[in-house]
Structure formats: C-alpha cells, structure tokens
C-alpha cells in the first residue's frame, strides 16, 4: 500500500467518522473516562514491584500463597505464573519461560474511571483497590483492564484482583507472593524512596526494565527484568491446556472446572 | 496453528458480561429506535400517513423500554446494590452517566404511551369488567389528552433516546482493552442495526398483532433497506480503517478473533443475514407497488430476520469477544448453558417481553390510539349515532 493512498483512505475514514460523530467524540474526550481523584493511602509513597524473571523458576509458590492469603475462589488467581515452552526456531532446542502475572497497579489505570460507583479506586500510594462493599459487580472494570488482572469473585459476586496485599503492607509485612518467592524474584517497595531496594535495582537496570503492553498508555508499575519481547503483548502461542478435550469436546484434566 | 511457543499454563476466567448484556443492548436499541419510528406519527397526528406505524412503534418502544432495564439489572452480579449507582455517581464512567440517563428515558416513553393510549382507554371506563376497572384507574380521570402534550413528550422522548444511543455506544467503545470494541464505528453500527431491528419488530407487530397496514409494511421495508445499506457502509468504513489507518484498533481486533472459529462463523452468519435481509427488503419494496394484499410469506418474515440480525450483531460484538484473552494466549471458551446467566436469561427476558406485550394487549385498546379504529369497537357513549340519540 503506497503512502499517499494510505493517507488518503485514512483521512477519508476519519473524515466520515468525524463528520457524524464529532460531538460524540468530543464528549468522550472530555472528562469522561479520565482518572478520578485518588483516595486514601500514603501520598509520600508509590508502591511498585520489580520481577526479576531470571530468578523465577516457575514453581507457583507465589500463586499458592496468594491464594491462601487472599482466599480467592478455586480456579481464580490474583497472581499466577504463566508457563511457556519456547522452541528455538533455528536449532529446535526447547526452553521454558515463566511470567508471573498480577495487577500492574497502573499509574493510568483504565479500570478506575469506568467503575460506575467508584468501588475501584486508586490510593495515593498508587495501589488500585476494590471496595467490595460498594462494588455492584457490573464487570465493567474486568472488561477495561487490558491485562486480565481482574475477575468476578463468585463468592463475593464482586470484582477481585491483586491489592499488593495492602493489608500486609500496612502491617509492615511483605505481600504473600514476595514472602514465599523461592528464587527471590519479586521485589516490592516504594519507588519514591531512593534508598529502597527496588529504587536501587531500577536505577541499576533501568534500560533493561520492561512493562506489559506499554503502548496502551496505562503506565504499569510492575516492572520485569529479563523479559522476552515476545511476551510483552498477547503472545503468539499455542494454548496447549485448552486443547486437551474429550470426545464430547468437554475439557479434560482441568481440575478446577466445575467448582 | 504452528507456533514455536506453547502456553502450558495460564489462568482462564469466565466472561464478566453475560447474555443479559446482549439482551439489554438489544432491547434498549429497539426502544430508542422505535421512538424515532413513532415520532412522525406522534408529531403529525392522528390519521396521518405515519399514524398506523406509530401505533406499532409505540407498543414496541414501550415494551422494550420496560424490559431493557430489567435485563441490565440482571447483568449486575449484585443487582440489589443498584442504588449504589445513585449514591456514588461517577462522572468519569459512561455506565454511571447511563444510570442517570436511563430512568428519564424509560419514564418518558412510558409517559408518552400512557398519554397516547389513555385516549382510547377513556371509552373503556364504562366497562363493568376488569378492563373497565383498570381503565378507570389508568386514565386518571376522564379528561381529554391534550395533543400538544403528546407532541412535547414525543420530542422529549426522542431527545432522551439520543442520549441513550450515545451512552450505550460510548460505554462499549471506550474500552481500550478490547480492540474490537474500541472503535468509533461501533456506536454507528449499534444504531444502524438497531434501526433495522426496530423496523423488523414493527413489521412483525403489523402482521401478528394487526390490523395489517400496507403503508407500514412499505415504510418499514424502506427503513430496513436504508439502514441495511448504512450498516454495510459502516462495516466497510470500519474495514477500510483497519486496512489503511496506521495503528487502528481494527487490525488488532481482527487479529484477536481471526483464529476463533465460533466467532468467525457467527460473524459471517450475521453479515450474510444482514446482506440477504437488505436485498430482500429492497426487492419486496420494489415489488410492493403491484400488490397491496397481506401475504402469508410477507414482510413479517423479514421482520423476524431483522430482529435476529440485530440481536446477532450484539451477540457477536459483546459475547464472543469476551472469550479472547487479553494478555495470554488462547481463548476461554464460554459455553452458554441453560442457567440464568446463559440461555435461561435470554429466554426469560424474551418471555417477559412477550408477557408485557400480551398484558398491554389485554388491558389497553392501543390499536384505537392515534385515530386507529380497528381495535375494539367503541362502546356506545362515544359512537356518533349514540351521541345523537341521547342528545335527542
Ligand atoms: S493491571 Fe488492570 S486491574 Fe491492575 S491497575 Fe492496571 S488496569 Fe487496573
Ligand atoms: S465490577 Fe465493581 S469494581 Fe468493577 S466496575 Fe463494576 S462496580 Fe466497579
């Protein structure tokens, strides 16, 4: 497609869309869908996590301890380690890649402005939390999070996700996942404090740090060290577990289904 | 699919919006579009060329406007907390804005239907049975409905319906996390398919509820043809943006669902249904000049297809897309079960809708509104002959 044609068609499409929906678009770009003010939390702090993937062995200790600490329903996880088998296209050698996932406590979290009752909100310390007493379970935030970090908890029928274990942070403890991490891959801390471990590590490895889907403009605050670029966006991968099906197409070997 | 990467383990979550959401977006679109179909008849009054159409469109608008919020409520996982919407209004959220816009719209439509229907209902006040008792209560006195009030409320309802159109479209289109939703072409698509569905519903009512009106058939076939073409235009523009505009969400959207056979099949089915429908409506319209008799296999079948297509458009856009994982590989398959969050809810809402129509049909002489005469025969006191007799 040559450039001129592309630009012309692009303009045409924009023009036609614009003519009909300029008022609509300008409304959408007004205050709607912008971040509401933050509430609560310590404004002197900005919590963030650094995950050193070189140290992660994919043992799921964090997954289990988080599950126990936060009492998530079976089959739902506030954090989990995605596991990949990666084949070197040149040599055919196989290796594994582990990617711990959790809420990124984005600085521009798309899950917050959509919440119709401000049950999902961001604290001054950057942590995004859900007030489960206020949440109406509309699921809008689940749709809005580009990282699938949220789910509807079927016990509480409200939105649920990682909170960086605020209740533990407030008590001076580390989050359950950090506490239990076998390889010491998860580092949590206050990035406004230059003497914190995380600040020092971020200084040291600044150019090697990556976040998930940076193009979404969400400014995630979970930083990955040793990240493979293929996994920054939705990876092109064969989802093997979901292909394990019986004759009747029902899933086999997924122990949590049906609970 | 051949890939050097295999995802061995990743969480799989259920979808967050159930088919209730499809029902809501379907019914509410029918509601606001039906208001527009009723508008000319309501504005230019009784016995006008649009009066018959307005009778059906008003029934469509009223019943869908009642059922839509129920479906919406059911899609909340905590429906009893709906009052939180009003206790914690959030100006940044389209959903919250919608919670303020929806009640005025629903009440405006109900009020409009009441104003229009109470006129023929006045004649039922004399009846001794249940319908009479209901008519005496519902008409709130024997005064004549002022026509300017109908006109004003019709315009108010139409303006409010615009706000519903904008909010429902924007609510979905602002979700950047889902490329298929995050496009300026989605609100117009919901509008054009909604108009086709509403016209289809009027065609259907025109035939099954009667009395059949040839002019309404012709007008609605025209609406379906026009908005079918507009829908095709919207889909085309959407596709063009995907092909030619750098960094548009469409390429990502298509990419995200390309390998999903269910989505592909339903999308193709929906588009085919839309194309066939538009063609058939255009053809029928063209041929209608020769025949003015109701046909067994007439436009009402196209009405059904139009409703189906409008529903499918929402199903394709809202449901299947949710099975696309946003950050991990693969799809979380959503098997629509028979429970209330699956087909149970879909059927339940349709059942409720039908029940509302039937109840109105029993208690309200809506066919006689706006100068319609082929409903219930008018009881004695209001018929001209009787009037002369008592006078004499
Ligand atoms: S990762 Fe998702 S849930 Fe967490 S703050 Fe960002 S958008 Fe919200
Ligand atoms: S599910 Fe709860 S937290 Fe999420 S947007 Fe709805 S009300 Fe807010």
From TrEMBL, chain A:
<feature type="signal peptide">
    <location>
        <begin position="1"/>
        <end position="30"/>
    </location>
</feature>
<keyword id="KW-0479">Metal-binding</keyword>
<protein>
    <submittedName>
        <fullName>4Fe-4S dicluster domain-containing protein</fullName>
    </submittedName>
</protein>
<dbReference type="Pfam" id="PF12797">
    <property type="entry name" value="Fer4_2"/>
</dbReference>
<keyword id="KW-0411">Iron-sulfur</keyword>
<keyword id="KW-0004">4Fe-4S</keyword>
<dbReference type="InterPro" id="IPR054822">
    <property type="entry name" value="DsrO-like"/>
</dbReference>
<dbReference type="Pfam" id="PF13247">
    <property type="entry name" value="Fer4_11"/>
</dbReference>
<dbReference type="InterPro" id="IPR017900">
    <property type="entry name" value="4Fe4S_Fe_S_CS"/>
</dbReference>
<dbReference type="InterPro" id="IPR050954">
    <property type="entry name" value="ET_IronSulfur_Cluster-Binding"/>
</dbReference>
<feature type="domain" description="4Fe-4S ferredoxin-type">
    <location>
        <begin position="47"/>
        <end position="76"/>
    </location>
</feature>
<dbReference type="InterPro" id="IPR017896">
    <property type="entry name" value="4Fe4S_Fe-S-bd"/>
</dbReference>
<keyword id="KW-0732">Signal</keyword>
<feature type="domain" description="4Fe-4S ferredoxin-type">
    <location>
        <begin position="126"/>
        <end position="155"/>
    </location>
</feature>
<keyword id="KW-0408">Iron</keyword>
UniProtKB/TrEMBL annotation, chain B:
<keyword id="KW-0472">Membrane</keyword>
<feature type="transmembrane region" description="Helical">
    <location>
        <begin position="56"/>
        <end position="74"/>
    </location>
</feature>
<feature type="transmembrane region" description="Helical">
    <location>
        <begin position="94"/>
        <end position="117"/>
    </location>
</feature>
<dbReference type="InterPro" id="IPR052049">
    <property type="entry name" value="Electron_transfer_protein"/>
</dbReference>
<feature type="transmembrane region" description="Helical">
    <location>
        <begin position="267"/>
        <end position="288"/>
    </location>
</feature>
<feature type="transmembrane region" description="Helical">
    <location>
        <begin position="189"/>
        <end position="209"/>
    </location>
</feature>
<dbReference type="InterPro" id="IPR005614">
    <property type="entry name" value="NrfD-like"/>
</dbReference>
<feature type="transmembrane region" description="Helical">
    <location>
        <begin position="341"/>
        <end position="364"/>
    </location>
</feature>
<keyword id="KW-1003">Cell membrane</keyword>
<feature type="transmembrane region" description="Helical">
    <location>
        <begin position="300"/>
        <end position="321"/>
    </location>
</feature>
<dbReference type="Pfam" id="PF03916">
    <property type="entry name" value="NrfD"/>
</dbReference>
<keyword id="KW-1133">Transmembrane helix</keyword>
<keyword id="KW-0812">Transmembrane</keyword>
<protein>
    <submittedName>
        <fullName>Polysulfide reductase NrfD</fullName>
    </submittedName>
</protein>
<feature type="transmembrane region" description="Helical">
    <location>
        <begin position="221"/>
        <end position="240"/>
    </location>
</feature>
<comment type="similarity">
    <text>Belongs to the NrfD family.</text>
</comment>
<feature type="transmembrane region" description="Helical">
    <location>
        <begin position="20"/>
        <end position="44"/>
    </location>
</feature>
<feature type="transmembrane region" description="Helical">
    <location>
        <begin position="148"/>
        <end position="169"/>
    </location>
</feature>
């Amino acid at each position: 497609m040559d450039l001129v044609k592309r630009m012309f068609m692009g303009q045409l499409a924009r023009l036609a869309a614009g003519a009909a929906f300029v008022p609509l678009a300008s409304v959408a770009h007004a205050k709607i869908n912008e971040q509401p003010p933050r509430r609560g939390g310590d404004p002197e702090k900005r919590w963030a996590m650094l995950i050193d993937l070189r140290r992660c062995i994919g043992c799921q200790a964090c997954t289990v301890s988080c599950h126990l600490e936060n009492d998530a329903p079976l089959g739902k996880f506030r954090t989990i380690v995605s596991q990949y088998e990666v084949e070197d296209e040149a040599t055919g050698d196989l290796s594994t890649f582990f990617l711990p996932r959790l809420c990124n406590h984005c600085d521009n979290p798309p899950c917050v402005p959509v919440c119709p009752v401000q049950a999902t909100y961001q604290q001054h310390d950057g942590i995004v939390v859900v007030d489960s007493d206020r949440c109406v379970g509309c699921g809008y935030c689940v749709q809005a999070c580009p990282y699938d970090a949220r789910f509807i908890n079927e016990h509480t029928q409200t939105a649920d996700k990682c909170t960086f274990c605020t209740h533990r942070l407030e008590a001076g403890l580390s989050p359950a996942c950090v506490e239990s991490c076998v390889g010491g891959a998860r580092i949590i801390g206050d990035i406004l404090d230059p003497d914190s471990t995380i600040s020092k590590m971020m200084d040291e490895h600044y150019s090697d740090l990556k976040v998930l889907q940076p193009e979404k403009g969400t400014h995630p605050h979970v930083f990955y060290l040793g990240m493979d670029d293929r996994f920054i966006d939705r990876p092109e991968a064969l989802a093997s577990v979901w292909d394990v099906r019986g004759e009747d197409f029902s899933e086999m070997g997924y122990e949590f289904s049906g609970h | 699919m051949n890939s050097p990467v295999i995802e061995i383990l990743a969480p799989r979550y259920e979808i967050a919006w159930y088919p209730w959401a499809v029902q809501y977006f379907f019914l509410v679109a029918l509601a606001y579009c039906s208001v527009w179909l009723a508008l000319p008849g309501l504005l230019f009054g009784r016995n006008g060329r649009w009066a018959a159409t307005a009778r059906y469109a008003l029934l469509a608008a009223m019943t869908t406007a009642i059922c839509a919020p129920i479906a919406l409520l059911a899609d909340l996982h905590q429906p009893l907390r709906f009052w939180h919407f009003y206790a914690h209004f959030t100006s940044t959220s389209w959903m919250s804005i919608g919670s303020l816009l929806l009640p005025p719209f629903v009440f405006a439509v109900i009020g409009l239907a009441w104003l229009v229907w109470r006129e023929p209902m006045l004649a039922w006040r004399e009846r001794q049975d249940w319908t009479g008792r209901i008519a005496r209560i519902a008409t709130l006195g024997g005064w004549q409905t002022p026509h300017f009030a109908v006109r004003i409320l019709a315009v108010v309802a139409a303006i409010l319906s615009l706000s519903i159109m904008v909010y429902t479209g924007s609510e979905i289109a602002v979700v950047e996390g889902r490329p298929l939703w995050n496009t300026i072409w989605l609100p117009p698509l919901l509008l054009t398919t909604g108009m086709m569905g509403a016209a289809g519903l009027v065609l259907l009512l025109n035939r099954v509820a009667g009395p059949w009106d040839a002019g309404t058939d012709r007008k609605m076939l025209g609406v379906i043809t026009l908005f079918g073409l507009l829908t095709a235009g919207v889909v085309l523009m959407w596709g063009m943006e995907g092909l030619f505009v750098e960094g548009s969400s469409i390429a990502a959207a298509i990419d995200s669902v390309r390998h999903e056979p269910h989505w592909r099949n339903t999308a193709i089915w929906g588009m085919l249904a839309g194309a066939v429908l538009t063609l058939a409506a255009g053809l029928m319209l063209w041929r209608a000049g020769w025949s003015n008799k109701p046909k067994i296999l007439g436009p009402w079948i196209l009405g059904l297809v139009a409703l189906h297509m409008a529903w499918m458009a929402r199903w394709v856009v809202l449901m299947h897309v949710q099975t696309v994982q946003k950050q991990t590989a693969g799809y979380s398959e959503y098997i629509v079960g028979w429970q209330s969050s699956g087909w149970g809810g879909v059927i339940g809402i349709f059942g409720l809708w039908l029940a509302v129509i039937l109840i109105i049909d029993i208690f309200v002489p809506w066919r006689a509104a706006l100068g319609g005469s082929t409903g219930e025969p008018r009881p004695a006191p209001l018929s001209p002959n009787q009037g002369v007799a008592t006078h004499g």
